[in-house]
Recover the amino acids of this structure.
C-alpha cells in the first residue's frame, strides 16, 4: 500500500489538486485519462480522472465524487486516495492493497473507476481561503439584486476565517456556558443570562438600520448542487437551495450528462461530511418499497461500511430527512439510483461524535439525522472539550470586541467549523482515507464480468462451419447492475455479433447478430434468496448464454459481445483453408 502522501496529509486548493491530477495523467497515459467535465464561472476545471485498462473504451465503471458542498473538503482527499491506491494496483501486478485478495485485485485491474474529487471548485476555494460561507457555489441564487435584507458572510477582521458575531440582547436565544467559558449554548428556562444573539460574521445587504434578517442555514447561502438534479426537483421555497430549475448549474449539468452518456457506471459514491454514516436509497419513500434484490446488495455494502469505517448504513427517507416524511428533492443519489440504475450511496465522512465520546442514542423512533440537532448540553461541552484537547482549539476562538459597520459594538469569535467540525484535522486524514478506500474498492469489485468462455469451430461439410460460443457472467452483479435497473429502456441486454473477414462469409448475410439477454451475477448479498443454511439452492443457468452461426469459406471470424452496462469484449477465430 502507498504510504501517506500529500493527498492524505493536507487539504489541497484548486491549483494543488490540478497539479496532482495532471502529474498522474502524464506519468501513466496507458491507464489514466484526465478530462474537464466543464469549466466553472470562476474559470476552474471540474476534473474527472478515469483509471483503468484502455481508458477510452467503455467497460464497467464505479464513480466516486466529493466536495459538492463547498465546506465538505475531506471527501476530495478520500477520492484522491482511492485514485492513488488504484494507480499502485496497476503499476504492480503483485500488489494487494488494503488487505484485498489477489483475485479481487485482478478484478479491479479489469474495470474503470471515475474519480471526480471536487464538484464545487469555486465553492471550495472561497472556503479554503476563509472568504465567505457558501453551501455549494458562490453565485447569487436569485440572479438579480434583491431588495430584501440578507446576510452576506465575510471575513471582517482579516483572520482568514468566517466566525460568529455575538450581540448582547435580552431577547437572545443563547447564553454562555458556565462550565466552559466562551462556549455558547441554547437558552433554557432556568438560565439567568446574560443572553445573546448569534449571527454569521459578515454584513447585511439591504440593511435598513433596524431589520436584522435570519441567517441562512448551516453551510451558508446559495444554490445547493445536491438539490439541483432532476430527481423530483421542486423550486424554492419548497426545497431550499433548489436553484431556478433542474440542472440550472453547469456543474450539476455536466455530471448528469456524463452519467447519461456512460451507462457502464454501475456504482456511485457521493462523499460528504460530517456524521459518520452511509445513506442509501430510497430517499423519497419508506424502506419497504426498496427492490428486495437491491436491498440485499446494499446490505453487503453496509457490512463493509461497518467493518472498515465503523459507520452505520441508513435509509435516506426514514433516517435522513430533516423534516420527517418530507423527502429532499433534486439530490444526486436519487438521480443516479432511480434513473441510471447505480448502486448509489452518500457517505457522511468524519464521525466527530465518536471522536468526542458521544454515543448515538437508541431511543425507539429516533432517526440518525436527529443526532445533529438534538445534542444535550453535556454533549455540546464534550465537543468543545475535544476541540481544545485534540484539535488545538481550531474551532472555538475567544470572543473579542469589534466595531461592526452596521451593528456597532459587537464581539467576534466562536466557531471556525472548517477543520475539526465539518472536516477532520489534517493529521487524521490518512486514517480516514484508508478506511473509505477499503470500502469503495471492495464495492468496485462487485462489477459484472462478462467473458466468452468457450468458442468452438465445428466442421459442417466442405468449406462450411458452425461457430458456437458460450458467454458467462463471472461478476457479483448481473449484466444489468442492480436488479431494479434491468427494466430501464437504456439498459439494453447483451448482444453477440459475428463479423467475417477474408474469404469467410455468413451463410445468411444478414444473420450476424444474436440477442443474448441479460446474464445474472452470482452475488445475492449476505441475506439474499436461498441463503438460509437449511435451504441452499442456486438459480439455473441464468448467468450463461449460447449463440451459434453458420459460415462458409475461410478467413477470420470476430465475435463481439456487448451490452449497455458492460461495454464490448471480443474473441478472434481463424478458419483456415481445408
Amino acid at each position: 500500500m502507498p504510504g501517506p502522501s500529500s493527498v492524505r496529509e493536507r487539504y489541497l486548493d484548486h491549483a494543488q489538486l490540478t497539479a496532482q491530477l495532471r502529474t498522474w495523467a502524464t506519468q501513466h497515459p496507458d491507464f489514466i485519462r484526465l478530462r474537464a467535465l466543464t469549466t466553472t464561472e470562476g474559470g476552474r476545471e471540474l476534473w474527472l480522472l478515469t483509471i483503468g485498462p484502455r481508458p477510452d473504451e467503455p467497460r464497467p465503471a464505479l464513480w466516486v465524487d466529493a466536495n459538492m458542498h463547498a465546506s465538505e473538503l475531506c471527501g476530495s482527499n478520500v477520492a484522491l486516495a482511492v485514485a492513488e491506491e488504484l494507480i499502485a494496483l496497476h503499476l504492480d501486478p503483485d500488489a494487494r492493497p488494503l488487505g484485498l485478495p489477489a483475485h479481487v485485485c485482478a478484478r479491479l485491474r479489469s474495470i474503470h473507476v471515475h474519480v471526480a474529487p471536487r464538484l464545487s471548485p469555486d465553492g471550495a476555494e472561497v472556503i479554503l481561503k476563509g472568504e465567505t460561507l457558501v453551501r455549494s457555489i458562490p453565485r447569487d441564487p436569485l440572479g438579480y439584486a434583491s431588495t430584501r435584507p440578507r446576510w452576506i458572510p465575510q471575513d471582517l477582521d482579516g483572520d482568514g476565517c468566517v466566525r460568529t458575531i455575538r450581540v448582547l440582547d435580552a431577547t437572545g436565544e443563547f447564553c454562555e456556558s458556565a462550565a466552559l467559558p466562551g462556549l455558547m449554548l441554547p437558552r433554557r428556562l432556568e438560565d439567568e443570562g446574560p443572553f445573546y444573539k448569534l449571527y454569521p460574521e459578515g454584513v447585511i445587504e439591504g440593511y435598513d438600520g433596524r431589520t436584522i434578517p435570519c441567517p441562512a442555514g448551516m453551510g451558508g447561502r446559495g444554490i445547493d448542487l445536491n438539490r439541483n438534479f432532476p430527481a423530483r426537483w421542486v423550486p424554492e421555497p419548497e426545497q431550499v437551495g433548489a436553484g431556478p430549475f433542474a440542472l440550472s448549474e453547469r456543474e450539476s449539468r455536466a455530471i448528469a450528462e456524463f452519467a447519461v452518456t456512460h451507462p457502464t457506471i454501475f456504482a456511485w459514491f457521493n462523499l460528504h461530511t460530517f456524521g459518520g454514516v452511509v445513506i442509501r436509497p430510497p430517499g423519497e419513500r419508506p424502506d419497504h418499497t426498496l427492490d428486495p434484490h437491491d436491498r440485499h446488495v446494499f446490505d453487503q455494502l453496509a457490512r463493509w461500511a461497518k467493518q472498515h469505517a465503523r459507520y452505520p448504513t441508513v435509509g435516506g427517507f426514514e433516517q435522513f430527512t430533516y423534516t420527517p416524511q418530507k423527502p429532499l428533492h433534486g439530490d444526486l443519489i436519487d438521480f443516479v439510483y432511480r434513473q441510471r440504475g447505480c448502486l448509489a450511496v452518500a457517505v457522511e465522512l468524519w464521525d466527530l461524535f465518536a471522536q468526542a465520546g458521544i454515543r448515538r442514542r437508541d431511543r425507539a423512533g429516533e432517526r440518525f439525522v436527529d443526532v445533529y440537532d438534538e445534542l444535550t448540553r453535556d454533549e455540546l461541552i464534550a465537543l468543545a472539550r475535544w476541540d481544545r484537547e485534540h484539535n488545538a482549539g481550531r474551532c472555538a476562538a475567544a470572543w473579542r470586541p469589534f466595531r461592526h459597520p452596521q451593528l456597532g459594538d459587537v464581539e467576534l469569535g466562536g466557531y471556525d467549523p472548517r477543520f475539526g467540525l465539518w472536516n477532520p484535522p489534517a493529521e487524521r486524514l490518512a486514517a480516514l482515507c484508508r478506511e473509505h478506500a477499503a470500502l469503495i474498492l471492495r464495492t468496485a469489485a462487485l462489477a459484472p464480468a462478462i467473458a466468452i468462455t468457450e468458442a468452438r469451430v465445428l466442421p459442417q461439410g466442405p468449406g462450411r462451419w458452425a461457430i458456437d460460443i458460450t458467454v458467462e457472467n463471472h461478476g457479483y452483479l448481473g449484466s444489468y447492475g442492480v436488479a431494479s435497473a434491468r427494466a430501464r429502456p437504456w439498459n439494453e441486454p447483451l448482444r453477440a455479433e459475428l463479423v467475417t473477414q477474408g474469404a469467410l462469409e455468413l451463410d445468411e448475410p444478414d444473420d450476424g447478430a444474436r440477442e443474448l439477454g441479460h446474464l445474472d451475477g452470482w452475488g445475492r448479498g449476505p441475506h439474499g434468496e436461498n441463503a438460509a443454511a437449511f435451504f441452499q439452492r442456486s438459480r439455473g443457468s441464468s448467468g450463461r448464454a449460447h449463440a451459434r452461426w453458420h459460415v462458409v469459406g475461410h478467413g477470420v471470424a470476430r465475435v463481439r459481445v456487448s451490452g449497455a452496462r458492460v461495454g464490448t469484449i471480443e474473441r478472434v477465430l481463424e478458419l483456415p483453408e481445408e
